[in-house]
Design goal:
Layout lengths: L2 H11 L3 E6 L2 E6 L7 H12 L8 H4 L8 E2 L7 E3 L10 E4 L2 E4 L2 H9 L3
Antiparallel strand pairs: 1-2, 3-4, 4-6, 5-6
Length: 115
Amino acid sequence: MRWGCLFDLMEIRLGLLGINKAKGGYEVRREKPMKLTQEQRQEIEKIASGLNCSKDFICYKSGPEKLCKARDFGMERYIDCLEENPENCEFSLPFGEGYFCKCALRIYIAKNLKK
């Protein structure tokens, strides 16, 4: 697998059009493309190479529209999983009445790229 191509695809997809609800209808807005530094690219490559993802990394290869819903709440090794059916994900961890995400790549994206 050529990781460089995946990162280029990720940067392109992160700049795709989005739709915002506006007064009187909807407006199309253009998201600012996320630029990755060489250090970020290397870190993502390192993380991805150590993961076995049954979803074939769709969460970051497809850009923000396919990125699973999650939020950083300050824990180092977990983020809050906000997906509708988190029990279907191999990286979800039930905790209390919610779920944590333990995917190292998704955690990196949430904490370092704020997505």
